[in-house]
Every structure is written in C-alpha cells, then in structure tokens.
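In pairs, describe these two lines:
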Amino acid sequence: MRLLEGEKEVINQQAEKYENTRENLIPILQELQTRLGYLPGPAMETIAKAINVPAVNVYGLATFYNQFRLNPPGKHQIKVCMGTACYMAGGQIALDSFERRLNIKEGETTEDRNFSLERVACVGCCSLAPVVIVDDVIEGKVTATRVDGLMLSFEMNEKTKEQKEQQQEKEAIAAAAKKEAEKTEENAEAEKEKEKEEVEEKGKEEGV
C-alpha cells in the first residue's frame, strides 16, 4: 500500500534515531507503530538497513508478534468476533460477507484506508452472537443481510457528510462574496463622500 504524505519522513526520523542500534528491536518497532499506526514494508526495510540487520529478520519479528500490524488501521475499523459462540452462530459468514463487500481479506485495509477488517477473540457478548464491533460500537446478530445494511449505512452517512460539506463550502463562498460586495459598496460610498467634500471645498474657495 502506498505511503501517505509524511509517513516516509517519520520512518526516516526513526531510522536516524536508532542508527546502528541492533538491540531492543521490539521497542524500536513499537515506537514506530505508535507513530504510524502500523508497520509498512518500507519502514521495516529502512529500519533494518539503519541497524544493519537483514530485512527478513525484522519482518519475521513483526509477523511473529500479534501486537504488530502490517496494514494501516482504517478510518472505520470492523472487527468480527470469532469466539466459539459467534463462530458457531455464523461469525465466519459475517466475515466472508464483509470481505466480499470491501473486496479485501481479513487483516487488510481498503486502498482508500476507509475500512480495515480483522477477526478478534471473544468479546464477551455471546448472547448477541454473531457479534461485530464497528468503530467500537457492538453490533449483534450480524447476518449477511445485516452486513449489507451496515455497509449501506456507511455509504449513506458518507454521502450525507459530503453533501453537508459541499453546502458549508457554498455558504462560505456566498458569505465571502457578500462581505466583498459590502466592502466594495462601503468604498464606493466613501469615494462619493470624498468627492462631495472636495466639491464643497472647491466651492468655498471660489466663493472667497
């Protein structure tokens, strides 16, 4: 996935900070993930070069520990519970449905970084199985149809948000235009008043 503006700079800063420091690789990766939210491939390659270790070693460490994620967290994070109750009630079906709708696999993030999808262990809501956590909101009894409903809700909310932003932009432009018009009118009035004063002054001089 392509790095966002600013991410490369963060990676280079970390590489310079820990240059030739082979010890404590895990804390180095933890700090980098804290700053980026994930560990992109270019970051691991850069760190490996900076501390003079094979890139495969860094990658192997990052994939061994569950605390590290190799894909960026999405704007909207979808977590499908795969505890025993949820799995038996159709958790895998819900996961498959999200994968089809988002066109990504579990553990991945959409190219626009709007959505990330992952499986999680039991979330303690077995009576609502199968459970999905969407942006920290628990959704229960999630069937394939419910997945479609959730995604449609996202699309509608995004459309409403976009329309609202467009309306706000139009209002801002209109307000700026009105302010400019008022300023122009004030300047015109001031110019007229100035001309009037000049005429009166000239008349006084001629009268003298």
